[in-house]
Amino acid sequence: MENGRWSLGLIVLAFVFITSSSAEFLIQQVTESKVSSVSETEYNSSYNLNTNLGVTSVLREARPSSKIVTITRFSVIRERFEPYESSVFEAAGYKWRLILYVTGNKADGGDNHISLYVRIEDTQSLPKGWEVDVDLKLFVHNIRQRKYLTVTDEAVKRYNEANKEWGYGQLIPLSTFNNPNVGYIVQDTCSFGAEIFIVKPAEQQERVTFVSNPPDNVFTWRVRRFSSLEDKFYYSSEFLVGDRYWRLGFNPKGTGDGRPHALPIFLYAQGFKPNAVATTTWGAVNLRLRHQLGSSHKKAYSAAWYPIRPDYGVGVNNIILVKDLQGGYLVNDSIVFEAEMVMVSVTNIVPT
């Protein structure tokens, strides 16, 4: 009889256990179903952003310049699916909010990640058809290292009426973020940030044009009393071709590997004409020592980028040997150099 009572008691306990377990399971299923339904419809229906492509993450010491949000007692919310929306902050002349998902924005591929976005606010005050191009960086503070994980894909984010929110569904894996040895959560505290720079299209551009055979491109320089010249550089007067002044120069005793048996000749870039755009200038020139009794001129071609500073010369150390000057190049103790500018660059500032 006593054994029968024990059997009956065991049957009753088993029935209660099964009933309570089924009820608990049913409640859990209903609760999870409601949570899933709310998260997908109420919080994620507006998101169709692309999952991270080409995103880079690096640590830096400098704090974010636009916004920092610090959450204490993070453990209270670490399992929540709802986004945290920060207060409105101003950056680059516009108003914004930081949007944080501590368990990831599933609609943006954020499963098992922290998701973070920046949304533009107060757009009703902006003109019709507004667009704002932004260089956006998002941050997670590594408290242990005293550095900020900086996340960006280097792509300009265009905010407009159709796209008011940009960011990263996979900002940082939860496995990394929640790891106490890594340092993103210290004493139950963590911080996130944003850096917003407006990218304004340039209204002007610098246009470099190469001009072949520009006007007044031939300059002739007669050097007199050649036999009395000293061992130093002599220079011609300046001549204007394109937007820049130029001059020729040579040393009668030679220079470089041509010294002292050959004559050099160089083209020097000088200053710019009034209102010209001062930039590095391309100069291509045919340098000649003229044969004064015929057409057997000595020729050399030279081309180079000439810097903005004046007196930069390019040419040749040996356009003729000194012993060959008497063959019609040196006449009445004078020689004749010639520069034919075959191409120069001209720079202008024009609208984009």
Automatic annotation (TrEMBL):
<feature type="domain" description="MATH">
    <location>
        <begin position="216"/>
        <end position="341"/>
    </location>
</feature>
<dbReference type="InterPro" id="IPR008974">
    <property type="entry name" value="TRAF-like"/>
</dbReference>
<protein>
    <recommendedName>
        <fullName>MATH domain-containing protein</fullName>
    </recommendedName>
</protein>
<feature type="domain" description="MATH">
    <location>
        <begin position="64"/>
        <end position="196"/>
    </location>
</feature>
<feature type="signal peptide">
    <location>
        <begin position="1"/>
        <end position="23"/>
    </location>
</feature>
<dbReference type="Pfam" id="PF22486">
    <property type="entry name" value="MATH_2"/>
</dbReference>
<keyword id="KW-0732">Signal</keyword>
<dbReference type="InterPro" id="IPR002083">
    <property type="entry name" value="MATH/TRAF_dom"/>
</dbReference>
